[in-house]
Amino acid sequence: MSDLVPDGIDPAVLRQTLSLPHPQMRIVTYYLTARKDPEFDNAVVKTGEKIAEEIGMNRPLLSRTIPQLIKAGWLRLASRHGNIRYYGLGPRAEERNNVVPLRRTA
């Protein structure tokens, strides 16, 4: 079973990630494409060490970058179990549906 979601990423959100510094862009892209666990408030339920390994980043850099992404609204603290924190997508990274339904006028 793959950890990646099939294809539900908003292209507008992906375009916004292009303006992020490279480490931040890698982390946000990972969180956009990783499988989320609804039982953990849609968090990516993996340790920072495992995530850093999967994206080819050292763990201290990942740990320093996540608070910046939380402050910018890309990530949010979704669940905490003991001293382990799990993060999910923040409001800036979630899909937006800007389609307004048409009304019949006559």
UniProtKB/TrEMBL annotation:
<dbReference type="InterPro" id="IPR036390">
    <property type="entry name" value="WH_DNA-bd_sf"/>
</dbReference>
<protein>
    <recommendedName>
        <fullName>MarR family transcriptional regulator</fullName>
    </recommendedName>
</protein>
